Protein 1
Amino acid sequence: MYDLFFQKLNEKISFTAEEQAIISSYLTTKKLRKKQYLLQEGDVCKTIAFVQKGALRAYSVNEKGVENVLQFALEGWIISDLYSFMTGEPATYYIDAIEDCELLLITKAAQEEVFAKVPKYETYSRMQITGAYLAMQKRITSLLSLSLNERYLNFINIYPNIVQRVPQHMVASYLGLTPETVSRIRKRLSAK
Amino acid sequence: MYDLFFQKLNEKISFTAEEQAIISSYLTTKKLRKKQYLLQEGDVCKTIAFVQKGALRAYSVNEKGVENVLQFALEGWIISDLYSFMTGEPATYYIDAIEDCELLLITKAAQEEVFAKVPKYETYSRMQITGAYLAMQKRITSLLSLSLNERYLNFINIYPNIVQRVPQHMVASYLGLTPETVSRIRKRLSAK
DNA sequence: TGATTTCATTGACTATTATCAACGTATTTT
DNA sequence: AAAATACGTTGATAATAGTCAATGAAATCA
């Protein structure tokens, strides 16, 4: 049932069967159909979601209605409005399903009980957020120092599976480009 | 001696005097003169540095010799090449002192012993990196969705103290702009 | 203190990408 | 199955920031 979830955990730290049983007891499952929201701006984000199946994105919408994609999540990834989750403040972005999804959810209260009962889970959690921090740092470096061509190439190198499953205009938004520009970059690249 | 350091810790979680004594015993101090390196590209980053006094920056240098500022750190902040620190791989960026600095250092081995002896310190560490992650997320949003004017204004709003202490061309680099562009933005803003 | 280097500003020019609009195709909805 | 919507591509144009170069001021160094 929770195979992928524990596979990911055990890649970083090994958990015993008992520990896994304790953790499991705090998880709930949720299915989302394509285009459904997991979270809407203004709601408080009550859970962190682990993706068992499907694809989601987190995005904000500015005054002019322009969408900015902050994050994608595929199988094995985690997605949440972490600021809202941590503070209880209303969310500043939306999370919705790009494909039909199966998720595992954990609430803040549940997470804290698991931290208390299975300290290794807090270590895992620290390592997980550290990894997310480092990935984000790479993204900033890519935004600051690469040409648009390199930025796109770098992206499809790191996330080949995203490019195949996500509409191009969302990728453009993630990269800070217009859809037209991504289309032209692809054209240039395919000409070579 | 370690006043500022424990002040920062206690803002998030309170530590007893004993706990603070244990943690202290794992810290070392280091002074840096302006322009000295804390870390050079290619070295393994052995420590995380807490800034007691002064200002530093982390930056990478590309093939053309262009510097890209990834991070600033002032009093009370933490700075490190976390990827190198975590993995033991050679650092991909430099850290140097913008002003004379006084630092507290903790090695990876020391950190792990402290995690074992004072579990709360791991909780603190998780919260600290989570905060850094969220700050970085805001920076990405600023890079993706704000006009250059707004980006500069947003920066001086969040970090007024950095603008006063750091050369303008480093701020420009942090914002992904040329020094000329920042100069023109400032001119435009002062005209209003 | 005088010399040297670093830094910020300004102007002229160029390259690049966003914007706007139109079109054809694919996908979704009813 | 037909209609409506969403998506990607292409072209023309405009706006914007980068590049290059020169200057003066400030900070650093010897």
Note: The interface with chain B takes residues 60, 62, 66, 68, 70, 82-83, 86, 115, 119, 122-123, 125-126, 129-130, 132-134, 136-137, 139-141, 143-145, 173, 176 of chain A (CB under 8 Å).
Protein 2
Amino acid sequence: MESSTATGGGSTGGGGGRREATRQKLYEAAVTLIAEQGFSATTVDEIAERAGVAKGTVYYNFASKSVLFEELLRHGVGLLTASLREAADRSAKEGGGTVAALDAMIRAGLVFIDRYPAFTQLYVAELWRTNRAWQSTLMVVRQEAVAVVEGVLRKGVESGELSDEIDIPLTAAALVGMVLVAALDWQSFQPERSLDDVHAALSRLLQGRVGGNR
Amino acid sequence: MESSTATGGGSTGGGGGRREATRQKLYEAAVTLIAEQGFSATTVDEIAERAGVAKGTVYYNFASKSVLFEELLRHGVGLLTASLREAADRSAKEGGGTVAALDAMIRAGLVFIDRYPAFTQLYVAELWRTNRAWQSTLMVVRQEAVAVVEGVLRKGVESGELSDEIDIPLTAAALVGMVLVAALDWQSFQPERSLDDVHAALSRLLQGRVGGNR
DNA sequence: GTTTTTGCACTGACCAGTCAGTTCAAAAGC
DNA sequence: GCTTTTGAACTGACTGGTCAGTGCAAAAAC
């Protein structure tokens, strides 16, 4: 269903769907390899080989190795952000309140990581690196994701559900970190656990049933 | 001065001898560079230059680039573990209970990260990578650190202070992640905040004053 | 006199990026 | 219909450069 049509219907660009399919294959190959080995240790030859494509094709489709990587990052974080936002909105519609919304976002985060573990790994590994070409891309993209969480927290404070003592940016970062790290640990070191287990543990922590009042 | 190595500390100039001093300088140079650029993107020549040492000296002191890195990891995580354990023990001696011990460990973690940001960054970036030579080293060393947190949680459950519903390994991972990510975010994106601010935010989260009962 | 460091030339592997050439399906010409 | 042309997509050998690691004689430190 993919490549045979060169017609491309109303799509822009001369080649139609073939090109997009190639790019997709390259993304997929790159994300796994870079997550496993890191950006510098992954060669363009490897990416091309894993995608089943010649090296030249990589450079036909992307200006450089790092441009390929940057577009990968943008695409992936876009997906995550959309997923978080959707979870928050749905929860809001169901009228569960702020804590329910946070909980829904935790679950959405876990589902995302479960589905795209390689991307998550790569994101975490690169996020705090300074001195790299794509650093600014990463910062923008990070802020987008954290902002979704901050938005929910802010609403909670405004509505009086959450104490106005809480530090919104720091708390948002901590929550994101909690989910990220717990999920990566789950994938790497306790893959036998179910998503529900992990969600339950994080939920308990969020709701203060670990260190909390009783 | 700013020494962001996790390798400094303890041994004063006198004890180690000339060779040890050289190794320290190499650790310090390597940790910063690798945190900034990643392992593969950092060259041995760079490390030697930053350490103010000839390239041959690197190979006189370490069998290879990756051996240097592995020893760096072991050393750094050793310091972190010791610091966490000490915080937990001191808190236990003061009789503050489990939550106080967890809180003390959070602070110890923050202090460590504040002192050795480069090491922390590098550790997080490498921790979930598969396929690398030092992967097994990392797993051992990670388990050591998480085990300290798990120990405290376990004690809390046994003494009835914590619900026995909590999932100890997952909760420990989540707590570690929370501290790690919040601290790295603090360093990278909100460096103007004080350690106390960050500690307070995390403390609140731990004690359930965010999503918790009231 | 032994250990450690230096300086530097050298090698062999590896790798990002290039480019001249190939493929093939659709459009144009007949 | 059928041949020819076009050009986007793709190919893979090749280049120029980089880098881990070596070898070694001489200096420095202890």
Note: The radius of gyration of chain B is 19 Å.
